């Protein structure tokens, strides 16, 4: 049996039964049954075991699953004591979905994806040892906080800490595009690379000229921000961090940008497929001036990034709208 040949599992069916009330009550005990079935049918038969913790760590290092330097900052005796401490805490997943999520997206697996190489305690231990950087007291403190779920590292940190072949440990990056084709191309390439190494990526689109703006004197030539959003959405879908989790991206637009209505409409179910975004998150940059106008119930003017840059000599996002609005 392996993770790729699982058949006749019952945990999905048990988990689905939670959505079927019995006598008006949600059968929460089905979640516990699904959790127990998941470990019995999936985790325990497909987890590689070792005689000792030291044997396990040596194997992971020799097979290029684990970095060696951070492990060598500690004595084998201390690592054994850390593992003993974690075992004594008697950690149990509180729900089927929590266990399914961990083993599906966080636990280290063999190169062929057929067996698990880590338990939750292993991942906690490697995080504690890695981030403590040789400080035994800190390593023990981090392990205690994590195993009791009072502290949780960011997703890429928890996923990648200690791994030999991994993405980055940081969560988020921000890309600011300028209003030219080369900048858009570089932005897409940067988003692909940053997503590949484990980061969520935010992109500011406020500097891009709106739909219908002129290009090289030709009126109505610009396509606006919507096609660029679609390019980024496809990029994040493609760059999925070694298959561990989908790339995550968000695009931001200033509320005073002429494309703001189309931007906000891109999530509608009935939006045209050419502009509809499904997985890309949206964010709006809202200067103080917007709230001032709202409180006074006044009309709001939108500003072309092309015209603003032509007038001020700097990209739209560099201009303080609150200060310059009435000029």
UniProtKB/TrEMBL annotation:
Pfam families under this entry? Ribonuc_red_lgC (PF02867), Ribonuc_red_lgN (PF00317), RNR_N (PF08343)
Q: SUPFAM superfamilies from the xrefs?
A: PFL-like glycyl radical enzymes, R1 subunit of ribonucleotide reductase, N-terminal domain
Catalytic activity annotation:
a 2'-deoxyribonucleoside 5'-diphosphate + [thioredoxin]-disulfide + H2O = a ribonucleoside 5'-diphosphate + [thioredoxin]-dithiol
Q: Name one GO cellular component term.
A: ribonucleoside-diphosphate reductase complex
Annotated ranges, domain Ribonucleotide reductase large subunit N-terminal? 93-166
Q: Which GO terms describe its molecular function?
A: ATP binding; ribonucleoside-diphosphate reductase activity, thioredoxin disulfide as acceptor
Superkingdom classification of source: Bacteria
- Ranges for domain Ribonucleotide reductase large subunit C-terminal come to 170-326
Q: Where is the Ribonucleotide reductase N-terminal domain?
A: 11-91
Q: Which GO terms describe its biological process?
A: deoxyribonucleotide biosynthetic process
E.C. number: 1.17.4.1
Q: Which family does it belong to?
A: Belongs to the ribonucleoside diphosphate reductase large chain family.
Function per UniProt: Provides the precursors necessary for DNA synthesis. Catalyzes the biosynthesis of deoxyribonucleotides from the corresponding ribonucleotides.
Name-wise, this protein is Ribonucleoside-diphosphate reductase
Q: Which organism is it from?
A: Candidatus Enterococcus avicola
Taxonomy, top ranks, is:
Bacteria, Bacillati, Bacillota, Bacilli, Lactobacillales
């Amino acid at each position: 049996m392996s993770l790729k040949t699982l058949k006749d599992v019952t945990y999905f069916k048990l988990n689905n039964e939670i959505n079927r009330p019995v006598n008006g009550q949600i059968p929460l005990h089905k979640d516990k049954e699904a959790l127990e079935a998941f470990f019995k049918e999936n985790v325990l038969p497909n987890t590689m075991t070792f005689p000792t913790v030291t044997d396990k760590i040596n194997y992971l290092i020799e097979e290029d699953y684990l970095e060696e330097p951070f492990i060598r900052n500690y004595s084998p005796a201390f690592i054994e004591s850390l593992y003993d401490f974690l075992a004594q805490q008697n950690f149990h997943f509180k729900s089927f979905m929590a266990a399914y999520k961990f083993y599906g997206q966080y636990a280290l697996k063999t190169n062929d994806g057929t067996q698990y190489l880590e338990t939750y305690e292993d991942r906690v231990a490697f995080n504690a040892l890695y981030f403590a950087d040789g400080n035994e007291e800190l390593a023990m403190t981090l392990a205690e906080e994590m195993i009791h779920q009072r502290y949780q590292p960011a997703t890429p940190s928890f996923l990648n800490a200690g791994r030999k072949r991994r993405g980055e440990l940081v969560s988020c990056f921000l890309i600011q595009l300028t209003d030219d084709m080369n900048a858009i191309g570089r932005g897409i390439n940067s988003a692909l690379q940053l997503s590949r190494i484990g980061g969520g990526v935010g992109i500011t689109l406020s500097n891009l000229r709106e739909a219908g703006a002129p290009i090289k004197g030709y009126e109505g030539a610009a396509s606006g921000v919507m096609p660029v959003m679609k390019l980024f959405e496809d990029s994040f879908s493609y760059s999925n961090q070694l298959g561990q989790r989908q790339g995550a991206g968000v695009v931001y637009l200033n509320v005073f940008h002429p494309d703001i209505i189309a931007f906000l409409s891109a999530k509608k179910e009935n939006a045209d497929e050419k502009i509809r975004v499904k997985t890309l998150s949206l964010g709006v940059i809202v200067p103080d001036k917007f709230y001032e106008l709202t409180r006074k119930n006044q009309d709001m003017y939108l500003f072309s990034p092309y015209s603003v840059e032509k007038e001020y000599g700097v990209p739209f996002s560099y201009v303080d709208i609150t200060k310059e609005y009435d000029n």
